[in-house]
Amino acid sequence: MNEILQWITLHQEMIYIVLLMIFVGIEVIGHVPSVLHTPLMSGANAIHGVVIIGAIIVMGKAESDNYLALSLGFLAVILGTLNVVGGFVVTDRMLEMFKKKKK
Questions:
Q1: Which end of the chain has fewer CB atoms surrounding its CB within 10 Å, N or C?
Q2: How far apart are CA 28 and CA 91, in angstroms?
Q3: Alpha-carbon distance 70 to 74, whole Å?
Q4: Which residues lie closer than 8 Å to 63 by C-beta, 6 or more apart?
């Protein structure tokens, strides 16, 4: 218990920043109109390319016998790729709705 309190005391500023980010994020998302949620989410999914790069770096720096880091890195690459591709598919389908239909 003493170790946990020391860790909290040591990282107190970081904890405050994370809590502030949570409240600001909830307020920002709460005030976005419903019509804009899908384009914002599909764009946010494309940002997960950063997750893919980070996972590749983790896998590259991991020891060959560190199966936990390798498997978590591989899982992050797969899930990040699915999220990026899904974001582009949703965006493409959304843009198709605004095209004029051919007669």
A1: C
A2: 21
A3: 6
A4: 69
44 and 89 co-located in one domain: yes
pLDDT at res. 88: 81
Q: Which domain holds residue 16?
A: 1-31
Give CA–CA dist 11/43, Å, rounded.
32
Q: Are residues 59 and 70 in the same domain?
A: yes
Task: Put residue 100 in one of left, alpha, beta given phi > 0 → left and psi -120 to 50 → alpha.
Answer: beta
pLDDT at position 17 is 94
Give the confidence band of 31 by pLDDT, cuts at 50, 70, 90. Answer: confident
Same domain, 63 and 42: yes
Mean pLDDT value of segment 59-84: 90
